[in-house]
C-alpha cells in the first residue's frame, strides 16, 4: 500500500496533520479576535508622570550626602630622591588611615604599618643634609626648621608601626646605622598651632645599632627603648627615654641631644 494511503483511525495521516494546523490557527483567532471578528486597536493609556514621581518621593527617606573625610590608604614602591637623584627614603609597602576631619581642618595619619623602609641620611662638610632640598616645601629657610612654627596646617600621627626598618647616617667624619628597626609610635605632632617643633612619643623600639670601631671596623649592639619622647630641633634631636637597654646593660631616665655639630657620633646624654 502506498505511503500516502496509510490511515490512522480511518483517516489519512495528511488529513490529521492539516486538521491539527487549522485547529492551532483557529485557537489564535478566537483568543485575539474582537467584535465583528476584528482585532481591536490598543486603547490609549494615560500616564501622569508628576503624580507618579510624587508617590515615589513620599516613600523615600530624606538622604543627606556628605563627602568622605576618612580614607584607608595603601601604597607600594615609594622612593624619595635627594638633590643628586639618589634615593634617601624607600618604602616597599605601607598602609594607614588618613583623616581629613582633624580639629582645625588638619590632617591625621593613624593605624598604619610601614614595612621595611630604608632611610639614608647624609650630611656634607658644609652642614647640608641630603633631605633638605626635596623637603624644602615643608621646611623653612635653610631646611632645618619646620614651616609655620606654632601655626599652619595641623599634621599629626598616632598608632603607627615600623617593621624591619633600616637607617644609615653618614657624617663627614663617621658613619653609623640602625638595622632591623621595630618601632611603635604612640603619637606625633609635626606641625600646627602650638607646635614649636615636631614631637614624637614612642611606645617601644628595638634594633641593632652598628657603630664605628677602630679595631674591629664595626661593632654591633642590640638596643631597645621604652616610653621615649623625641623633639626635632634646628639640626639636632633632643630625646628623653624612661627605660632602655644597650647590649647587656640597662638604663633609665636617659636624656640628651644628638647633634652632628658636636663631632664624632654627635651624642651627648645623661643616663642611669
Work out the radius of gyration: 40 Å
Q: Which percent bin holds the helix content?
A: 10-25%
Task: Give the H and E element order.
Answer: EEHHEEEEEEEEEEEEE
Structural class: mainly beta
Q: Report strand %.
A: over 45%
Distance between the termini: 124 Å
Q: Helix count, per DSSP?
A: 2
Number of strands: 15
- Which descriptor suits the 3D outline? elongated
Mean pLDDT: 77
Main sheet attributes: strand count, strand direction, barrel closure: 11 strands, mixed
Unreliably modeled segments:
1-9, 13-37, 141-149
Question: What does this entry look like structurally?
Answer:
This protein has helices spanning 13-32, 49-59; strands at residues 7-8, 11-12, 70-81, 87-102, 106-115, 118-122, 139-140, 145-146, 155-171, 174-191, 199-213, 217-233, 236-246, 249-258, 267-270. It has 272 residues and is mainly β. The longest helix has 20 residues, at 13-32. The N and C termini lie far apart (124 Å).
What's the arrangement of secondary structure elements?
Elements lengths: L6 E2 L2 E2 H20 L16 H11 L10 E12 L5 E16 L3 E10 L2 E5 L16 E2 L4 E2 L8 E17 L2 E18 L7 E15 L3 E17 L2 E11 L2 E10 L8 E4 L2
Parallel strand pairs: 5-9, 6-9
Antiparallel strand pairs: 1-2, 3-4, 4-5, 4-6, 7-8, 9-10, 10-11, 11-12, 12-13, 13-14, 14-15
TL;DR?
Helix content is 11%, strand content 53%. With 272 residues, it is mainly beta.
Name some characteristics of this structure.
11-stranded mixed beta sheet; single chain; mainly beta; two-stranded antiparallel sheet; disordered N terminus; elongated; 272 residues
Amino acid at each position: 500500500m502506498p505511503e500516502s494511503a496509510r490511515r490512522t483511525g480511518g483517516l489519512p495521516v495528511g488529513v490529521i496533520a492539516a486538521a491539527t494546523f487549522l485547529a492551532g490557527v483557529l485557537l489564535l483567532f478566537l483568543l485575539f479576535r474582537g467584535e465583528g471578528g476584528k482585532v481591536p486597536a490598543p486603547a490609549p493609556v494615560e500616564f501622569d508622570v508628576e503624580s507618579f514621581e510624587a508617590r515615589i518621593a513620599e516613600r523615600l527617606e530624606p538622604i543627606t550626602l556628605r563627602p568622605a573625610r576618612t580614607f584607608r590608604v595603601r601604597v607600594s614602591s615609594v622612593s624619595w630622591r635627594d638633590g643628586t637623584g639618589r634615593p634617601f627614603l624607600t618604602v616597599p609597602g605601607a598602609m594607614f588611615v588618613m583623616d581629613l576631619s582633624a580639629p582645625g581642618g588638619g590632617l591625621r595619619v593613624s593605624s598604619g604599618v610601614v614595612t621595611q623602609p630604608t632611610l639614608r641620611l647624609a650630611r656634607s662638610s658644609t652642614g647640608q643634609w641630603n633631605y633638605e632640598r626635596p623637603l624644602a616645601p615643608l621646611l623653612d629657610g635653610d631646611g632645618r626648621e619646620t614651616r609655620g612654627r606654632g601655626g599652619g596646617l595641623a599634621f599629626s600621627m598616632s598608632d603607627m608601626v615600623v617593621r624591619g626598618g633600616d637607617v644609615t647616617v653618614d657624617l663627614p667624619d663617621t658613619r653609623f646605622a640602625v638595622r632591623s628597626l621595630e618601632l611603635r609610635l604612640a603619637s606625633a605632632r609635626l606641625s600646627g598651632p602650638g607646635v614649636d617643633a615636631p614631637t614624637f612619643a614612642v611606645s617601644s623600639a628595638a634594633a641593632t645599632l652598628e657603630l664605628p670601631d677602630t679595631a674591629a671596623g664595626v661593632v654591633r649592639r642590640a638596643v631597645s627603648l621604652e616610653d621615649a619622647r623625641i623633639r626635632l630641633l634646628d639640626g639636632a634631636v633632643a630625646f628623653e627615654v624612661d627605660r632602655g637597654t644597650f647590649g647587656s646593660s640597662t638604663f633609665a631616665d636617659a636624656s640628651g641631644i644628638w647633634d652632628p655639630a658636636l663631632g664624632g657620633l654627635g651624642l651627648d646624654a645623661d643616663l642611669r
